[in-house]
Amino acid sequence: MGSTLRIMVAGAVVGLAGSAAAAPLRLIPAVLHQAPAASSPSAAATAAAPAARDVPPASPASPAGDDLGFDLLGAPAAPAPSALDLKIAHQAQLRETLLTIHQAMGLATLACLAATVLVGQLSYADKFGRAAPNQTDRYVAAHEILSFTTLAGFAATGVLGLTAPVPYPKPTRLDTTLLHKVCMGAAVLGMMTELGLGLYTQSREGYVNQKSLAQVHQAVGLGTLVAMGAGATAFIW
Fold it and tell me: Sign (positive/negative) of CA torsion 212, 217, 220, 221?
């Protein structure tokens, strides 16, 4: 029995020794199989290089708000104009239009008044500067046509100026606008005086005082021309 035990112990020792010697031999093929991949870094870099070349470089991040040139959040919408604002804007535009026409008609009326005064001077010289047989009365019809044309143009120009809307308050102050109004007021008085005096002078045909009335009519016409010219100059200036 003692010999048998010794034989069993010797067999176990031999088995353990064989297992310990066989373990390194089994590890050698695995190490040899993995060695090329671990020991050749140039091959690994060569394999990874094509993949790195295929990837485009990352672009720097664009700042916020540069996407397509507009703000994604949007600017706050402007408030809609009120009914009062729209009314004021409409009145301001209408006033500008009417005053532009007023200015053009005023200049045309001023030119017509100057022609009326000139023809009136010629008619006065023809009627009262010559003896009765030499009077021609050739300027009478032209003077009447120009006179009534001037009156109509002056009235229309005045209506345009007076009816132009005033969308905002304009305090009265000493400026060219006030000078224009004063001159046009004097021109209105002159026009009314000329109309009444001209008709009365014409009705005094054959009377001694007709020449005197014609002279006053002539002076009032010149004064009206000066007043209207000053008013037009103040308006343009």
Answer: negative
Give 190: exposed, middle or buried? Use CB within 10 Å, 0-12, 13-18, 19+: buried
Alpha-carbon span 217 to 209, nearest angstrom: 12
Q: Which of 225, 198, 196, 187 is nearest to 143 (CA)?
A: 198
**Per the structure block, which two tokens stand in for 69?**
């040139």
pLDDT, tens digit (0-9, with 9 covering 90-100), for 40-57:
444 444 444 444 444 445
DSSP state of 79: P
What are the DSSP calls for 150-175, one per residue?
HHHHHHHHHHHHHHS--SS-----SS
C-alpha–C-alpha distance, residues 124 and 116, integer Å: 12
State residue 83 phi and psi, 5-degree precision. Answer: -65, -35
Give the H or E element holding residue 10: helix 2-39
The shares of helix, strand and coil residues in the chain, as percent rounded to the nearest 5, are: 75, 0, 25
Residue 223 is inside which H or E element, if any? helix 210-236
Which residue stretches of the chain have pLDDT < 50?
1-5, 9-10, 12-14, 16-56, 59, 61-67, 70, 72
Question: Phi and psi dihedrals of 153, rounded to 5?
Answer: -65, -40
d(CA 226, CA 188): 12
Task: Look up residue 82 and give its DSSP letter.
Answer: P
Specify the pTM. 0.64
Interatomic CA distance for residues 121 and 99, integer angstroms: 32
